[in-house]
Amino acid sequence: MTFLTAVTAVVALALMLPFYRVIKGPTVYDRMIGVGVSGTKTVILICLVGFMYGRIDMFIDIAIAYAMLNFLGGIIVAKYLGRTGGEPQ
What we know:
By secondary structure, this protein is mainly α. It has helices at 3-14, 18-24, 28-53, 56-83. The chain has one domain. The radius of gyration is 16 Å and the shape is elongated. It starts with a helix and ends in a 6-residue tail after the last helix. The mean pLDDT is 88. It is a multi-pass membrane protein. It is found in: Cell membrane. Its main location: membrane.
């Protein structure tokens, strides 16, 4: 097992940790933070997989697109919660 494979496995396991906050979060904001953190870890995981396959140029484009979708999703949910007073309907 190479060092890069071990790091990828650790990041993949660390990706599961924010899902506790998504599932058990007492507020909607905690769930939003959990989804944002898991999205960020997914971008890192995509880049590591690109390094493993030797095609970082292709995987970086995928990671950037995923990061933009993650950011825009957070903005959309924040605007929606701002209009509804902080609680989803």
